[in-house]
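Propose amino acids for all 128 sites.
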């Protein structure tokens, strides 16, 4: 179930680079060590690659847009649900759960980027 970003928490707060992000706890499926990524041409700037977990394929996205953080070496992947497909976010550290993130923490809506990631994956792998 995907939660509207304006709804009440709790929220899972995590950091990537020097920025903090929050995703609705109800959207979190798994928090796992970052798995090995498959190699294929990256189809858009946030897509780091794809990986398999429990028999499913997930795109791994970087929540940073222009922070200059491009390393795949972050230790954590947060798999989230959305109406348009599950996706994973790379994180350096999970800070924990908060009832409402501070205003300086960017809230992530998985459905906002999931469709774009899926379309990019289809183009990159020639699946329609």
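Proposal:
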């Amino acid at each position: 179930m995907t939660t509207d970003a304006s709804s009440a928490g709790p929220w899972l707060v995590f950091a990537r680079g020097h920025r903090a992000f929050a995703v609705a706890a109800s959207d979190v499926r798994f928090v796992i060590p970052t798995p090995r990524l498959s190699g294929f041409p990256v189809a858009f700037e946030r897509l780091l690659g794809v990986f398999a977990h429990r028999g499913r394929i997930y795109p791994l996205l970087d929540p940073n847009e222009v922070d200059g953080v491009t390393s795949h070496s972050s230790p954590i992947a947060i798999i989230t649900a959305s109406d348009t497909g599950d996706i994973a976010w790379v994180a350096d550290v999970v800070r924990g759960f908060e009832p409402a993130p501070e205003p300086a923490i960017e809230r992530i809506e998985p459905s906002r980027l999931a469709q774009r990631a899926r379309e990019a994956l289809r183009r990159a792998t020639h699946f329609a």
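The beta strands are 11-16, 19-24, 28-33, 47-53, 56-61, 76-80, 87-91, 93-98, 106-108. The two ends are 25 Å apart (CA to CA).
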